[in-house]
Amino acid sequence: MNKLDLLFFFMLATFLGLDIIRRVSRLLHTPLMALTNAISSIAVVGAIILAGEAQDPLTTILGACAVFASTTNLVSGYLITYRMLVMFKKREPK
Amino acid sequence: MGSASLADIVTGFLYLISAGVFVLALRWMSSPETARRAVLSAVAAMLLAVVGTLFDPQIVTYKWIVVAAILGTIVGYPLSRVPLTAVPERTGLSQSFAGMAAALVGAAKYYLWVRSGQMSHFRMTVVAGEVILGCLTATGGLLAAAKLAEWIPTRPLTYKGQNVVSFALLAAAVALGAVLIVDPTRLMLFPFIVVFGLIFGVMLLLPIGGADMPVVISFLNSFSGLSAVAMGFVLENKLLITAGALDGSSGFVLSVIMCRAMNRSVTNVLFGAFGAVKTTGRAVEQRTVKSATATDAAELLTNADSVVIIPGYGMAVAQAQHRVRDLYDQLTKRGVDVKFAVHPVAGRMPGHMNVLLAEADIPYDRLVEMDDINPEMPQVGVALVIGANDVVNPAARTDEKSPIYGMPIIDADKAQTVLAIKRTMNPGFAGIDNDLYYANNTLMLFGDAKQVIGDIVKVLAGDGGH
Q: Is B258 in contact with B88 (CB distance < 8 Å)?
């Protein structure tokens, strides 16, 4: 792939991100941070291939460690975001 | 790419949908009503990405993937059950893990490509970037977590020439990266990039004090996103770049919002070592404060038409949010209008107070932002300050010499009566004295926030409230 294409994606996604995040409710900044932490575990995609392609022991170990670190984030990030968000209630619980 | 295999096409489409759903998920965070949908769709997007990756024909064994994923789940689950007061340190830890993952993948790719002779200048550039970013996020996040959990002192640790040393380290890491770009086969140099990156992360966090954490944690959030972006450049993966960029911009927007709420710049927060150097020379004269008992407070609160509660980090420390809820119930029952005024940097991370109050079942339409409450403050009967300090310090408005001058504050002092709950008269962060406590319309309630509010609630409950 053309390397410049990658920069294009980066630039456009950043502008999009800046615009979307500015609209996030201030009430939800903590869950937002937990959610984006969970999304940063997208790194698991790169880690999976590394751990699975069995090139040599070193890269497999490094890849498996990266899968571990990302899965930890993925699981804890999503669960805690959901846990926080269900707490936001508008009306009095009767 | 040549002719794409079926697996490539499937993966490509799954990644495409995944990226789109991530964008929608963040858009749904714009309101608490759609926020649950946001998490669920972000989970779906992640699943699509993972499934798409598992199709990859490069994978020959799933053994280590499964083992690592199971271990990650075992560690991740308890991390999602921490008390909500521990959310800031969990966030730091999570950013650290994200940085670690990026650094590990970068290092693996480096050795793989050098050994197989596939290293190019472009690849080396992005690998070096990924490893430096990943390493500094890994240790930076860890140190932030340690400070937030108070495993290490939260006050800023400074020494002379600190910024010079920190930057020399970063410069050394970048310089080594540059040497490797020219000649990637100098295997001996690579570990030094890792080490310098790791140490730089520590150095970056040492001078940061507790009250600056909302900015720094947002900044690290941005870094963890950018390390995913760097990984995307290394693996030439568009999904990684897109999701990472969304993360990176989120952290950036949050740090800008936090900085504005403190009237400071990002560089000032990171390299200004606030609180360590700026102790105002104002003589600490013995001024008198008026203190009140729980009974006095209960009477004042019930006699007011409207009460604004201003929570701060002290409420989190004392875990007082559930008592605050009891107080809210007692007052609302008596027809008092109770609102909560939340300063953007109250607490240790963006939105910290909102989550704690939501945990205590306070309806979120009772939480009011600083800019909306300030015009109403002069009509407010009682402003109840719970463990907040700098965010209600009138010196930010009036005293040009004060280090916090210019910082937007909640105008608690303009309320008819101010009740301030505080453990002792020790000045808080940065040793800035708070004139609010000495004002004529202020009554102090000394003690632990949970205890004090509990006492007020007891008076109210015994008062025929039930």
A: no
